[in-house]
Amino acid sequence: MKIGIFGGAFNPIHNGHLKIATDFSNQLNLDFVLFIPTADPPHKSSDSLISFNYRFEMVKLAISGDDRFQISDIEFRMTGKSYTYNTLIELKKIYPNDDFYLIMGADQFLSFDKWYRYKDIISLASICTTSRENDEEKSRIIEKSKSLEALDLNRFYLSESDTFTVSSSQIRRMIAENQDVSALIPKEVYYYIKEKGIYTL
């Protein structure tokens, strides 16, 4: 099988995340995309990170009913920092004969060579990222891909579809300021956030 691997804080998951997953699912004819909420992200401050259970539930609500998407709590069940390399090693034990396609945003890819054991990650999964078409960002991504000596460009995929420019941090700030975010996140996630009072000051 061809499995998309999409990790992240998802704090909260928003329509941009779903669009990236959908685009690569269609572009690469993936069997499914596995969403993996991170438990203890090594590169993010924990100050604004809500509990794993909240984030897991929001992802589950966002992908419910779409058989292209699945969710895993594998990083919650692992100990220590949630390094992508370690996660992929564990996933290989579950899916030993399947091909992985690691999905990430442009910002993540541009700092990919700073990731823990990034060269080993490249050996475990094809790399998928996205960029706005005709944008300077696209040129930076292409240059970065060429500079990663371990990266087989035949296993590097770039989606140039329209991207969703609002970030999770912006959505959190908007919620705290009582701004309407209903158009930015799935409606089930919106209602869940409202019900639980998440991100309010």
Strand content range = 15-25%
Which percent bin holds the helix content? 40-55%
Radius of gyration: 16 Å
Tally of extended strands?
A: 6
Structural class of the helix and strand makeup? alpha/beta
From N to C, what is the helix and strand string?
Answer: EHEHEHHEHHEHEHH
Which regions contain 5 or more consecutive residues with pLDDT less than 50? none
Largest sheet: 6 strands, parallel
In short:
The chain contains 9 helices and 6 strands; from the N terminus they run βαβαβααβααβαβαα. By secondary structure, the chain is of the alpha/beta class.
Write the layout of secondary structure elements.
Blueprint lengths: L1 E7 L6 H14 L3 E6 L14 H12 L5 E3 L2 H4 L6 H11 L4 E6 L1 H5 L7 H7 L1 E5 L5 H12 L8 E4 L8 H9 L10 H10 L5
Parallel strand pairs: 1-2, 1-4, 2-3, 4-5, 5-6
Helix pairs in contact: 2-9, 4-6
